[in-house]
Specification:
Blueprint lengths: L2 H4 L6 H14 L2 H9 L6 E5 L5 H10 L4 E6 L2 H9 L8 E5 L12 E7 L8 H11 E12 L6 H13 L2 H8 L7 H10 L3 E14 L2 H10 L4 H6 L2 H14 L4 E2 L2 E14 L1
Parallel strand pairs: 1-2, 1-4, 2-3, 4-5
Antiparallel strand pairs: 5-8, 6-8, 7-8
Helix pairs in contact: 3-4, 7-8, 7-12, 10-12
């Protein structure tokens, strides 16, 4: 297969994200986050930075037909993918475009707020958490998840190093960005400063699974902002990137394909 053919993936970045990255990386965390706060039948739930809706769909099943779930995201492409997927069993989910630091809902609108892997990207994290608190009813619950530092996710740490070597420093910085809020105390402090109480933060581990190192690199690139810098790299650089990653991930590759651990901080609190 020629190098250019190896990089061809059908669909937009949100579609690639939902089709390839959600099952391989994000999907296993959705039940973990829901288990933290145990959604109950009839409750009202908001999923902030919902992406294609993996957390919202699990919550919809748990709150049942008498509940309400809203998935909110700034990216209309992600919301289009969420709407196109089959509806979940349980509560209907409304997909709404909006900003985390200016939530378009009245005070005390929800029993539960989720935010899976969105907080680290928000330009004003305190404002976003204050908004999440505002829309929660008294004694309402919040469940958050952020990645631990990139060193706790060896596949991504190695990919960042390889991007720096073969593509650009900009690409390596993009790869490290999702791990920008990696310290537990920083997350705990943000929640406490937003006047949440009973704050609990703990580490958790899941496994990242791809058919091969090459699939990991191609799908991660195509489903993220890395697509731009990698597309502008030479064919030789892209070939070198794939060869490099196949070599350094050999110890994580076996009969099940590529499997490596990734660690997160999961947090819950009450208003």
């Amino acid at each position: 297969m020629r190098s250019q053919e190896q990089w061809q993936l059908a669909g937009t970045a949100p579609e690639v994200y939902a089709r390839y990255l959600v099952p391989a990386i994000f999907g296993p965390w959705a039940p973990v986050l829901n288990d933290l706060v145990a959604p109950q039948p009839g409750e009202r739930v908001l999923d902030v930075a919902c992406g294609p809706g993996v957390v919202a769909r699990v919550a919809a099943e748990r709150v049942g037909a008498t509940g309400q779930v809203i998935g909110l995201d700034l990216n209309p492409g992600m919301l289009a993918v969420a709407r196109a997927l089959p509806p979940p069993v349980g509560a209907p989910v409304m997909w709404q475009e909006g900003r985390a630091d200016a939530l378009p809902f009245p005070e005390a609108s929800f029993d539960l707020v989720f935010c899976q892997l969105g907080l680290q990207y928000f330009p004003d994290r305190p404002a976003a958490l204050q908004e999440m608190s505002r829309v929660l009813r008294l004694d309402g619950r919040i469940a958050l998840m952020v990645w631990r530092p990139i060193e706790y996710s060896p596949g991504f740490a190695l990919l960042a190093e390889a991007l720096a070597q073969h593509v650009s420093a900009e690409a390596a910085t993009m790869m490290r960005a999702p791990f920008a809020l990696g310290e537990a105390e920083a997350l705990r402090s943000l929640l406490m400063e937003a006047a949440f109480r009973d704050v609990e933060v703990r580490p958790a581990t899941e496994m990242v699974r791809f058919p091969s190192p090459a699939d990991f690199v191609r799908w991660q690139v195509a489903g993220s902002p890395l697509a731009g810098p990698v597309a502008h790299a030479s064919e030789h650089a892209r070939e070198a990137l794939l060869d490099h990653m196949s070599a350094v991930l050999q110890s994580y590759t076996g009969a099940e394909g590529l499997v490596f651990p990734i660690e997160a901080h999961v947090a819950r609190a009450r208003k």
